[in-house]
Structures are given as structure tokens and as C-alpha cells.
Amino acid sequence: MGGGLVERFILRRLAGDSLSQVLATLGIAFFIADGCLWLWGGDPRPVTSPAMLSGGLQAMGVTFPLYRLSVVVISILIGLALWLLLGKTRLGVMIRASVDDRQMAQGIGVPATRLFTIVFCLGAALAGIGGVIASPILSVYPGMDADMLPLALVVVILGGLGSLVGAFVASFLIGLIYTFGQVLFPDLSYIILFLPMVIILAVRPRGLFGRITA
Fold it and tell me: How far apart are CA 161 and CA 206, in angstroms?
């Protein structure tokens, strides 16, 4: 609901002004972060994983944490559900039509404004779900949002704007690069994170799966 209120009363009033929308959302993020700091303090809070997902799974002489494997499975299921929603349902067709040509979609009776609110609510809900799922791995601490924003930015740019498949592939690619980079080269982890993005964008400016728009 919070995401829908932000879209309805703030972002919609700034439609067509991308810079103002970015500044507004950053301001809201700072406001929420300071509110959380005021309410719950600045100490990290560990979150335990469900008991049924504790332990590990042995495969080829290597132990894989069961909870981390479950996170991979959940992400695949969510990605598949989004792909089906956007590509195989009437709602998804209307959303894609509204993104491609909002005026034309509204001209044939598609409630584009309402759809954008629904999409924003869905995005906010997915962000919340991602935070809950990741909390047993990363713990919860002040500034966690700022640590995740660069990763999300790299995933979106690398995968290509408007491409669900691109975001899905880029998220796994960036996850592997960032994890191994932190272990092997901890002092260069951010360089290792952004370097592939720079190289790929030099070859494909629209990202791996970015669409060519007319």
C-alpha cells in the first residue's frame, strides 16, 4: 500500500520529470531510513532462517547451505511468475501496451494510470519480499538499502531497461561476480562489480537484452 501511495500522490505529480522523480524517491528513502534508525536503533539485528531450511546439502564433496539454495529456487519461481504475468495474461498485455504507447493504450480503453499504480505496488512488494528473504543471510542494519541500491542499478543497466529476462540473467551474473570478487579480491570488490557493466555497455549500450526503441 505504501508504494501505491507514493506513486499516487508524489510520483504521478512529477510525471515527465525524471530528475524530480529520482530526487523525490531518494528523499523518501532517506526519510524512511532515518525513521527506522529512530525506531529500532543503529545496531545490526540478526535474523534466523527457518528451522526447516537450516543445515546444508552435500553434492560432489561440497556443502551448499540449504537456505541459500532455497533463495535461488524462490527467485526462479518469482521470475517465472512475473514472466507468465507479463507475457501470458491480459493484464500483462495491457501493462506492456501502456509502457510502449500510453496515449494509444488509453485511447482504446486501457486504464494506464491505474496499471502504473498496480505495477509500482507490485515492485514495492517484491522489494520487501527480497529484503525479508535476504535478511537471514545479510542481517538487518542501518544503511542496508544504500548497499543494495548499487547492485540493483548494475542489474537493471546490465540486463537492459524494460527486459525482465535481462534483469533475471544479470542478477545471477552480478551475484556470482560480486560474491567471488569479495572473497578473492576484497579490496577491489566494487571495481570487479562495475567493470563487467562498463565492458558490456561499451559493446551493447542498451544492455544484454535491451530493446531497440524507435
Answer: 7
Contact between residue 207 and residue 159 where contact means Cβ atoms under 8 Å apart: yes
Task: Quickly tell me which residue has 525513521 as its cell.
Answer: 35
Contact 22, 143 (CB under 8 A): no
The 10s digit of each residue's pLDDT in 139-177 is 888 878 777 887 888 888 888 877 888 888 888 888 888
Say if residues 42 and 139 touch (Cβ distance below 8 Å): no
Three-class secondary structure of residue 69 per DSSP: helix
- The answer to whether 52 and 140 are in contact (CB under 8 A) is no
Distance CA 112, CA 31 (A): 29
Please name the residue that has the C-alpha cell 505529480.
13
Q: Sign (positive/negative) of CA torsion 86, 155, 69, 50?
A: negative
- The total of other beta-carbon atoms located within 10 Å of residue 160's CB is 22
> Are 31 and 21 in contact, with CB atoms under 8 Å apart?
no
Which among 129, 130, 207, 120 is positioned nearest to 170, based on CA atoms? 207
pTM of structure: 0.79
pLDDT digits (tens, 9 = 90+) for 82-104: 989 988 899 889 988 888 888 88
Task: Specify whether the CB–CB gap between 43 and 142 falls below 8 A.
Answer: no
